[in-house]
Amino acid sequence: MEDTLVTLGKFGMFVSVLWLDSKKIGEGTYGSVAIGVHQLTNVERAIKTMSKGNIKHVQRFMQEIAIMKSMDHPNIIKLFETFEDRKQIFLVMELCQGGELFDRIIEAGHFTEKDCAIVVQQMISAVLYMHTSGVCHRDLKPENFLFLTKGPIDKNVLKIIDFGLSKAFEQDVHMTTKAGTPYYVAPQVLQGRYDKSCDIWSCGVIMYTMLCGYPPFYGKTDQEVLSKVRKGLYTFDSKDWKYVSEDAKKLISHLIKLDPEFRYTAQQALADPWIVQRAPQAADVSLQGDQLSNLRSFRSQNRLKKAALNIIAGQMNESQISDLRDVFKALDKNGDGFLTLEELQDGITRTDLKHKDIDLAAIMEGVDADGSGQIDYTEFLAATLDKRLYLQRDACWAAFSVFDQDGNGLITVDELKQILEDGSMEDVLDGRTSEDLLQEIDKNGDGSIDFEEFMDMMEQLGRHGVSKATLNFNPKP
Question: Where is the Protein kinase domain (predicted)?
């Protein structure tokens, strides 16, 4: 079968045309995954194709999509776009080519403590973000973690995938649905009364498995496994654990704790000495002068440009924003996936930069697009993106296409209003009317914004007055 050009159409804000590689990179119960190449940006994506006939619980599936779209963390898979036709639903996701954590365990037999600590740190960081955001995954297992690349673990990025059993929970309200996978499920889930701490139990089981090569609760049948899980009894066989540190065993015992009242929280786990001492800490990475300058000037940017930068940042590949990702994680001292005013202050204080005249509250207000009182990951990326990235014409064209709803090459007042009414950009645009925004950018006064006017906005309002001559501009897509 040859590669296929597929117009996935319009869904929400996006219009995408992709080449779908005929070679499948994954297949499951509900569909298959292939590589797609975005024709505007030439960026590769993972395209999950699902038959509507195989989706038994449509409402639950839509809840899964909503949760995935709301996730914004370096260690959680990105869902960029969703489309559908009469028979199928397409999920356009971040492409991870490093394989499952499960396969790495099988290949290695067991991990070194350093590699294990690196994985557990990223795993728990994502869990802390989910729990802080009011989401419980409920099916954490090695098969539901992917590595970004095939490279060594100490240079890799781990991503949580598959939110099919995830649930938005309310504080102090127990969940009751029995969900999960036998080896990794917490005893309280089997009892039908549990909270977010079930994810921590699963992380402990995964950590145990990584260090010795087999799970703590093992049996020939699911019933035998679940019987052992209910009792919560496991051992560290000296034959397989004699070279593993006591600190590692101690952390496992805090994670796989039968009574959830005494089980570690994600925050406590990240602060555990075994992780702190063995996983590389991001403290040595600091905010650079140009990044701080970008943060400071972001507040005064045109509101349409802010929205465009958020779109561009959300579509960037990991390789393009790896330095910014490291800075974000270094600033995020408690590892919850958000930056507070105090964390920003601490991060700037630890640099050699002059910071006495910096109005941090103003920076926070200008960058915090959704008004949450803290800076999300993509908000940080949008405010610190290097001009050489966001001024690439293909990146700007992709952002322009989001606003150009009918694809005629012009952004009208009505199209800006459509995006405002959609709700996804309302906070970013900060309440400005569509008429005001259009009038600022419409240089020729024809009542619309063409791509060159859009590019002029991105260039002339740039942070450092960058000229076209300094950049490598591609032909207009």
Answer: 19-275
